[in-house]
């Protein structure tokens, strides 16, 4: 294939659920590539759509969650985020997740970007929002499945966390870089 050739999508010949469980549904596709080659065991995680919120307080600090992430066995920093349930808009999910995970609310939510976290293996999209003017409304309820510590960090503090490799969740990292760049303009 030359750089000037047209890129074409793969053709799905068949699709079935290989693992139909609540926390990690996996689909197996049989696909035909534009070259004619057939792959009969292409597996995809039927990942949910996600809303990610970058909350910035009225005094310019980022509201960050510190949570345990079992897949990598680490306690990590990230912005509040969660699944967009069927029947709920990404914006409504962002507002709900901000309150549920942090106890904060914000008067203004701005959609920043929609990204594919791992476009070759995950089917869900991530909707990233900026929530400006965030203020604490309540203490978030304790969730034993997602214990959360809230940390307030200045823009300089967030940049330092990124530089030290402490802010490692990809959607949150991308969101942080977008908002930090915007703050410098």
Overall description:
The strands form three sheets. Strands 4, 7, 8, 9 and 10 form a five-stranded mixed β-sheet that branches. The chain has a three-stranded antiparallel β-sheet with strand order 1-2-3, with no helix packed on it. The chain has a three-stranded antiparallel β-sheet with strand order 6-5-11. The protein has three helices and eleven strands. The protein starts with 10 loop residues before the first strand and ends with a helix. It has helices at residues 90-102, 155-163, 170-184; strands at 11-19, 26-32, 38-45, 50-57, 62-69, 74-78, 81-83, 104-105, 108-116, 125-136, 148-153. It has 185 residues and is α+β, with helices and mostly antiparallel strands. The chain is globular, with a radius of gyration of 19 Å. 20% of the residues lie in helices and 42% in strands. It has two domains: 11-45; 50-184, Nucleoside Triphosphate Pyrophosphohydrolase (Alpha-Beta Complex).
Summarize the structure.
The chain contains 3 helices and 11 strands, in the order βββββββαββββαα. It is α+β, with helices and mostly antiparallel strands and about 180 residues long. The protein folds into 2 domains: about 10-45; about 50-185, Nucleoside Triphosphate Pyrophosphohydrolase (Alpha-Beta Complex), CATH 3.90.79.
Which features does this protein show?
3 helices, globular, 2 domains, 185 residues, 42% strand, Nucleoside Triphosphate Pyrophosphohydrolase, 3-stranded antiparallel β-sheet, alpha+beta, 11 strands, single chain, 5-stranded mixed β-sheet
- Beta percentage is 35-45%
- The low-confidence parts are none
Q: What would you report as the Rg, rounded to the nearest angstrom?
A: 19 Å
The third-level CATH topology of the largest domain is Nucleoside Triphosphate Pyrophosphohydrolase
Give a quick account of the main beta sheet: strands, pairing sense, barrel closure: 5 strands, mixed
Distance between the termini: 41 Å
Order of helices and strands: EEEEEEEHEEEEHH
Number of strands: 11
CATH first level of the largest domain = Alpha Beta
What is the helical fraction, as a range of percent? Answer: 10-25%
Give the CA-based shape: globular
């Amino acid at each position: 294939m030359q750089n000037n050739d047209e890129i074409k999508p793969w053709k799905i010949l068949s699709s079935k659920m290989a693992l139909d469980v609540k926390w990690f549904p996996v689909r197996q596709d049989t696909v035909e590539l534009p070259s004619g080659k057939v792959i009969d065991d292409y597996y995809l995680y039927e990942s949910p759509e996600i809303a990610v919120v970058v909350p910035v307080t009225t005094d310019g600090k980022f509201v960050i969650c510190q949570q345990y992430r079992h897949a990598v066995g680490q306690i990590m920093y990230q912005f509040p985020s969660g699944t967009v349930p069927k029947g709920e808009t990404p914006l409504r999910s962002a507002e709900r997740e901000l309150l549920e995970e942090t106890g904060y609310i914000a008067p203004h939510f701005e959609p920043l970007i929609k990204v594919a976290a791992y476009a070759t293996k995950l089917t869900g999209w991530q909707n990233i929002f900026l929530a400006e003017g965030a203020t604490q409304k309540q203490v978030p309820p304790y969730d034993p499945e997602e214990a959360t510590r809230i940390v307030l960090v200045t823009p300089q503090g967030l940049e330092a966390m990124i530089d030290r490799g402490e802010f490692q969740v990809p959607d949150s990292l991308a969101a942080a870089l977008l908002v930090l760049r915007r703050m410098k303009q």
